[in-house]
Specification:
- The protein folds into 6 domains: 179 residues, Lambda Exonuclease, Chain A, CATH 3.90.320; 193 residues, Nucleotidyltransferase, domain 5; 35 residues, no CATH class; 105 residues, no CATH class; 167 residues, Nucleotidyltransferase, domain 5 (2-Layer Sandwich); 80 residues.
- Helix content is 43%, strand content 17%.
- It is built from 33 helices and 24 strands.
- The strands form 5 sheets. Strands 1, 2, 3, 4, 5, 6 and 7 form a 7-stranded mixed β-sheet that branches. A 5-stranded mixed β-sheet has the order 11-10-9-12-13, sandwiched between helices.
């Protein structure tokens, strides 16, 4: 089907409108659409007359039916020309032919477009670019720019159409795809509906289908997301709302808008409130509504409604022309100045902009200082209610809210866009009835605003009725029942007696209260289990420490025994067939020097100021880090097996002391990784006492290091790897892109994302073709790796296929969003996807770092939310040592027991592994 400029302009507004026009349908019943069409046509004719005056009659040609031969043209200005290619057709309103600048150079053609509005949108520029594209393809020469004549002053804007040609071609391809389906597109209502000739038809269909697009403000991306989940109607969406407790970190942030809660309010026909919004009006409410012409930034009617007790005063300040705008502004300020402590209330940002612009444009606030606070701080009801208060209407507009409260306008189906027509017609005819319609509409807006304000004040103040005495149902969303999947429900009973009976059936209640009164044996068990028997552990070995050679203060060798002391060290001893508790008692004396009166003992002590031996601390850390037993369970194991009486605090101290001991080992691993030729990097979340932090993982083939960071920004990566010159293997997180080193992006991440996108849209042929091409590119590389390993001399042969793939990709133009985004992602990472083809020993995936993340993820379950920043750092030091030992094939427990600090030195000098029977 031929794509005309009319169809292209319709597609820019709505695919459904384009489809209907292509089928020859004509819409009816939209006065604004008819008025706009008339305005465009009259403006085009007037603009054409002004344009023709600059050219002589001999230089002008008019042809509105068939295409003309532009290559041999001699005229300077063409009017109503038709440009046509194989599948494109444009009705050029005017074309200027600029003669060639020299011999052998072709003439230039400049298309014109007439737009009656003062403010231009991108759609107008794209429509001109479409005319230029059709003209360019027909002439087979470049048309680089065009001109738009617009506004009351017939201003001329020069537009570089060549810069928009690519976007125009994308729209043309989408229109081709739309026509090739031979079925109408999915109906989606949007902002353009209010000025579309098919508004009544589409809205009626949407209401009959209860279509999701009835909910104003829903973006197309969110709309498609719901449809992909099988949610097509407003009623279906209403059943998906689930109240959530807001996290502490979001308490000070604004609540996001829930379309599902809006749908629930519509279904139940009740106002729903989220959280505890506060609306304080400390003063006299002044309800403000302004009418204007946004295209001209002209405000011609200010409506002010003041309620003082039972009396209501309505002011309608009318401006005949732009020159009278200052007069009505001064009148408005005068009215506000007479009100005690005025509080301006309005609905939407239009009045906010009005107050700001008029203050800058006409001033007057300095002379009336009491007015300034009211002007500077006005109450926007829409801003207050958005995301917090949901009226049962399809939009958040004033009319939907007021109509729910029983208020209606005298004109049926009135909207603000209709006032533009009335005002324009009044300026031409000065018909008093039109002025009366405008002032009446404005006064009714003020009254509706007053009605909604009183309703909100009553709802938020928990008052049951509005001014019209009609009860309003209000539901607090936080009071709705929360569904907790995977968690057993607590039974809720309507009667207190039933709840008491149910409580008496719980196991703990029966065991500890009822059966104890019945069974004597249970009383004995309960009493004996509550008593903790403390048994003194036998000492395995007693060591006597010799006296020191001299006094540590004065150096005298003459001193005498002062007091006998002893110290017991709890430890374990590893043998060939098991582990044994081992308690050593150290006996020693404190000595006194008669010369300097110092009291001292032998400082050469075997227990190193600790009550617990190194083997015991090593065993506890091994259970906690390597075997992933929580500290509580590790303490329970040591107490049960060895007869100790440890608390959770003791095992935590074991972890902290060994973390301090192995801190030099950890720092050495960091230096070795940064100074190497290859680094794998990844990151994961961790919950610390209610706030989210991150742990970064950096690995090589033989080392692994975990680094804590309070946030996910790239400062840690940049600072840690700023001197790294090897190859970095990572996922597609943007923080890695700032590093100045060769990078290999994980192809597994990319392939999984592609597959997930394909699963979401299994019938997307474009995406399926793109994924198949990429898989065909990567699969031979993997086969080469399987056969020869990661050796560049075997892998470089695939680089030619990579270049061919990206050349083909650059020529492709995808219509579906998911395929287009995939193309952008591939082209953005072009130089980082196949770096492994140029280096020996560089993997094509980030599995090494992902594998290192798993031990931390398992460990995280034991302390998530209950550890501190210092605690997590201790965990990461010991986990880094543990994973490095695993990468090197060394037993983490044996390394801890050895007391060594350098893993490489220990690996080279370790004895032959002993065979154990347990």
């Amino acid at each position: 089907m031929m794509i005309t400029s009319s169809l292209f302009a319709a597609f820019l507004k709505c695919p459904t409108k384009c489809w209907l026009r292509s089928q020859g349908e004509t819409g009816k019943g939209n006065a604004y659409s008819d008025w706009r069409r008339t305005q465009n046509e009259s403006y085009r004719k007037a603009g054409m007359r002004r344009l023709v005056e600059d050219f002589s009659r001999d230089e002008t040609i008019i042809s509105s039916t068939e295409p003309v031969n532009l290559k041999t043209a001699k005229w300077r200005l063409g009017i109503d020309l038709v440009a046509r290619t194989e599948n494109l057709e444009s009705n050029l309103q005017a074309v200027e032919r600029v003669p060639s600048a020299g011999r052998g150079k072709p003439a230039h053609f400049v298309p014109f477009l007439f737009v009656f509005t003062n403010k231009l949108t991108k759609d107008g520029k794209l429509l001109l670019a479409f005319d230029a594209l059709v003209l360019s393809e027909m002439l087979e020469r470049k048309v680089s720019h065009g001109k738009i004549i617009h506004g009351d002053a017939y201003a001329t804007l020069r537009v570089r159409t060549s810069a928009l040609a690519g976007e125009v071609r994308k729209h043309v391809i989408k229109i081709d795809a739309l026509f090739s389906i031979h079925t109408p597109p999915d109906l989606i209502l949007n902002r353009h509906c209010t000025e579309c000739e098919f508004q009544a038809r589409c809205r009626q269909m949407a209401i009959e289908q209860d279509d999701l697009s009835l909910l104003a403000g829903m973006k197309e991306k969110e709309f498609k997301k719901y449809r992909s989940k099988g949610i097509f109607t407003v009623t279906q969406l209403s059943y998906t709302f689930r109240p959530r407790r807001r996290p502490k970190r979001l308490r000070d942030k604004r609540e996001r808008y829930h379309h599902s809660l809006k749908a629930l309010a519509i279904r139940e026909k009740k106002i729903h409130i989220v959280g505890s919004p506060d609306m304080k009006i400390e003063g006299t409410p002044v309800y403000l509504d302004v009418e204007g012409l946004p295209d001209r930034d002209f405000y011609y009617l200010i409506g002010v409604r003041v309620r003082d007790g039972d009396s209501v005063v309505q002011h309608s300040l009318w401006s005949d022309s732009v020159e009278d705008e200052k007069k009505i502004w001064d009148e408005f300020l005068g009215i506000i100045a007479t009100i005690e402590n005025p509080v301006l209330i309005h609905y939407g940002s239009f009045e906010t902009t009005f107050l700001s612009r008029m203050s800058e444009r006409h001033g007057g606030l300095d002379d009336k200082l009491p007015v300034a606070p009211a002007i500077g701080i006005s109450l926007n009801l829409l801003s207050l209610a958005f995301g917090r208060i949901y009226f049962p209407g399809y939009s958040n507009g004033l009319k939907d809210a007021a109509r729910f409260l029983g208020f209606d306008w005298s004109e049926p189906n009135i909207s603000g866009i209709q006032t533009v027509i009335w005002r324009t017609e009044w300026e031409h005819s000065r018909d008093p009835s039109l002025k009366h319609k405008l002032t009446t509409y404005n006064a009714e807006d003020c009254e509706a605003l007053c009605r909604v304000t009183e309703c909100l004040r009553n709802c938020l103040a928990s008052q049951p009725a509005t001014s019209d005495r009609r009860a309003i149902d209000v539901v607090n969303a936080d009071s709705l029942p929360r569904e907790k999947p995977f968690i057993s429900w607590e039974n809720k009973f309507q009667l207190t007696a039933l709840e008491d009976i149910n409580r008496a059936a719980y196991w703990n209640y029966q065991r500890e209260k009822i059966l104890l009164k019945t069974e004597r044996r249970l009383r004995i068990i309960s009493k004996t289990s509550a008593q903790k028997e403390r048994v003194k552990l036998p000492v395995n070995k007693v060591l006597s420490l010799p006296p020191p050679p001299r006094c540590p203060r004065c150096g005298s060798s003459k001193f005498y025994k002062h007091r006998a002391s002893k110290k017991e060290v709890l430890d374990v001893r590893f043998g060939r067939s098991g582990i044994k508790r081992w308690i050593t008692r150290f006996s020693f004396y404190r000595y006194r020097c008669p010369s300097c009166h110092a009291v001292f003992h032998n400082s050469d002590r075997a227990w190193n100021r600790s009550k617990f031996g190194h083997n015991l601390r090593a065993l506890s850390v091994y259970l906690n880090i390597d075997l992933r037993m929580s500290q509580k369970r590790a303490a329970a194991f040591l107490n049960e097996v060895f007869g100790f009486n440890f608390s959770l605090d003791v095992t935590n101290k074991f972890k902290a002391s060994l973390a301090e001991f192995y801190k030099p080992t950890y720092d050495g691993l960091v230096r070795k990784i940064v100074g190497g030729r290859l680094v794998h990097a990844d990151e994961t979340k961790v919950n610390l006492s209610g706030y989210i932090s991150y742990v970064w993982v950096f690995t090589t083939i033989e080392e692994a290091v975990y680094v804590y960071a309070p946030s996910r920004d790239g400062d840690l990566v940049v600072n840690l790897l700023k001197d790294f010159k090897g190859v970095l293997i990572s996922d597609f997180y943007a923080a890695y892109d700032s590093l100045d080193c060769p990078q290999q992006k994980c192809l597994i991440h990319l392939i999984r994302d592609m597959n997930n996108d394909l699963l979401k849209e299994p019938f997307n042929e474009e995406m399926k073709s793109l994924v198949a091409d990429f898989a065909g590119l990567v699969k031979p590389m993997i086969e080469t790796v399987d056969r020869f390993g990661l050796k560049a001399r075997f892998l470089r042969k695939h680089k030619a296929n990579v270049d061919r793939f990206f050349k083909r990709l650059s020529r492709q133009s995808y219509q579906t969003d998911i395929a287009a985004k995939c193309k952008v992602r591939l082209e953005k990472n072009h130089t980082r996807l196949f770096t492994f083809l140029d280096y020996d020993g560089v993997p094509w995936n980030n599995n090494n770092a992902e594998h290192a993340v798993k031990p931390f993820a398992l460990l995280r379950r034991d302390f998530a939310g209950i550890t501190t920043e210092n605690g997590i750092r201790d965990y990461l030091i010991l986990l880094s040592v543990c994973e490095t030992c695993r990468f090197k094939g060394v037993s983490f427990l044996e390394f801890l027991l050895s007391g060594a600090k350098d893993i490489d030195v220990y690996t080279e000098s370790r004895p032959r592994p002993r065979s154990r029977s347990w």
